[in-house]
Design brief:
192 residues; single chain; HTH-type_TetR-like_transc_reg; DNA-binding; Homeodomain-like_sf; TetR/AcrR family transcriptional regulator; HTH_TetR; 9 helices
Length: 192
């Protein structure tokens, strides 16, 4: 790897260990084995580097969640409730290992009112993430049915955020795939 990649990997480690606000340029340099001048040369600023590192971490989580939703490449169940349950069982199983990423995402959300560049940097990846969730979780191809993928992705993203926040706060009472599926059945009037 070159300095640019080393910086990105170092920044990702720092974000997961220290958080967004507490990560300094010196922390990134120490974690990456590079030098301070490399940050400016490759990314323009520490903030730009941290934004790229944050986006890379969330994209990695999305890739893992999409793979979980697709159950490692096997076909999703045809029954929508079984499919919903299978996807959320996999996503929730990843709650523990993905805790640092969700903790970081929660911190970043609290910063966007004061950091317009950060807000702008995450808008498009968030939109793409929704479409990725629609495809990975539900098998909806965004190119074949963009509107269906958009609204399904909005719902998946809202559920994922809510579920993961509950797992951050209280894993003992956070929803399981069984809970979510039962709740969906109640909502849809199919609980009998």
């Amino acid at each position: 790897m070159g300095h640019k990649e080393d910086l990105l990997e170092g920044a990702k480690r720092c974000l997961l260990e220290k958080g967004y606000a507490r990560t300094t340029a010196r922390d990134v340099v120490a974690a990456s084995g590079t030098n301070l001048a490399s940050i400016g040369y490759h990314y323009g600023s520490k903030d730009a580097l941290l934004q790229q590192a944050f986006l890379a971490l969330t994209e990695e989580w999305g890739d893992q969640a999409g793979a979980a939703g697709a159950e490692g490449g096997t076909a999703l169940p045809a029954d929508p409730y079984e499919r919903f349950h299978a996807v959320w069982e996999q996503v929730i199983a990843a709650a523990g290992p993905s805790r640092p990423v969700w903790k970081l995402q929660t911190e970043v959300v609290t910063r966007i009112d004061d950091d317009e560049k950060l807000r702008e940097a995450i808008k498009e990846p968030q939109r793409q993430g929704r479409l990725g969730m629609a495809q990975g979780f539900l098998g909806i191809d965004p190119e074949e049915d963009p509107e269906k993928a958009r609204v399904a992705g909005l719902l998946c993203q809202a559920l994922a955020t809510g579920v993961m926040v509950q797992w951050l706060v209280d894993p003992e009472t956070a929803p399981t795939a069984d809970d979510l599926t039962a709740g969906l059945k109640v909502l849809m009037g199919a609980d009998g």
